[in-house]
Amino acid sequence: MLRLQKHLLPLHHRSTSPIHLSLQRALLSIAAAASSSPSHFAAEDYLVTTCGLTREEAAKATKCFSHWKSPANADAVLAFLTGPALGLSKADIALLVTKDPRILNSSVDNNLRARLDGFRSHGFSTAQIRSFVRASPCAFRTFNIDAKLGFWTSFFGSPDKFLRITRRNFYLVYSDLDKVVKTNIRLLQERGLSVQDINSMCVTNPRLLTCYPDVTRAVLMRADELGVPRNSFMFRQAVKTAAGLGPETMASKLKMMSKTFGCSDAEVARMVRMNPLVLTSSMERLQRVYEFLTKVVGVDAKYIQGRPTILMYSLERRLAPRNYVMKMLQEKGLIRKDLSFYSMVTIGEKMFYSRYIHPYKDVLPGLANAYASACKGRIPT
């Protein structure tokens, strides 16, 4: 303003013509408006210094605050969010305002306080509400608490489980309950899956609930094509597999498995029916495991085809260490030569120790340490 006046003052002394006077009045009017109107840069600076946004993030957010005459409302919002009611950290505030800058325009009394009360009415603690803010910052201000939160907490059984799954798929809070979610649940139930089955499946694949129903229908059709009976436990695995693989990828993997394992299409289909999850492993990994089993352990292709689950175990952390223990015990004559490797692989770690490590601690005192080293990738020679 002062700089502009310095330029205008000489103009006033040089001439008092109508044109010059009109120009002077126009420039002074612009300067006065600029000095009295809310400043774009003031809002941007506020977002950077007070809310912790980067300069680029603040520049994008300032369009939400063109009406600001003062930061009074924003200050009240931040005081509430960081205060004892919710206790958000500086990092939480930066994330929340970056994703939803309009929250600074909210009314503390008419909006935010009521939202916190709504979360708490569904059993959410203050810490869990903070977790929701971190998982779905865009939804905190607009999420339909009564309808959607009520449904999801009832479906999953606890706020903790809802939050855990929301971190994997934030579309849970946006998807249409009637047109999408409940329709998908009905389609899954029509295939014989219970609500408990669906609940369990969605821990690892929540997309089954939020994708378009036509996509779910296609997934279920591919699961049926794998030939797994609908009333079996493995049908759940078939659905998970089909949900993670497109039709082209699934067909390609079936073909490559037939080539890698040297078996017919019918034999591959039988393996998949026994454990559809084999299709979720990369072909490189399956080939490495297959070669280890046939060349190091010494089992043949038919043995593997009848026990496809063996392909799912980690080569480094399960198959190689337990093969080492089996060979050591067989060499000492402590276990049968014809003991099934599959029986050693499939039992849990505690049972494995009780059967094959602890009973021989006196005969082979270094076996436990050798096995522990093998599990870390250091197979003794």
Q: Layout of helices and strands, plus pairs?
A:
Layout: H1 2-14, H2 18-36, H3 40-49, H4 55-61, H5 72-82, H6 90-99, H7 108-121, H8 126-135, H9 145-156, H10 159-168, H11 177-190, H12 195-204, H13 207-210, H14 213-225, H15 233-244, H16 247-261, H17 265-274, H18 283-297, H19 301-305, H20 315-331, H21 341-346, H22 349-356, H23 367-375
Helix pairs in contact: 1-2, 3-4, 8-10, 11-14, 14-15, 16-17, 16-18, 18-20, 20-23
Keywords: Transcription, Transcription regulation, Transcription termination, Transit peptide
Family: Belongs to the mTERF family.
Pfam families: mTERF
Tally the beta strands.
0
Strand content: under 5%
The general outline is elongated
Helix content: 55-70%
From the 3D coordinates, which CATH architecture of the domain at 32-143 would you assign?
A: Alpha Horseshoe
Q: Could you give a short account of the major beta sheet? A: none
What is the gyration radius calculated from CA atoms? 33 Å
Family: Belongs to the mTERF family.
GO molecular function: nucleic acid binding
Keywords: Transcription, Transcription regulation, Transcription termination, Transit peptide
Pfam families: mTERF
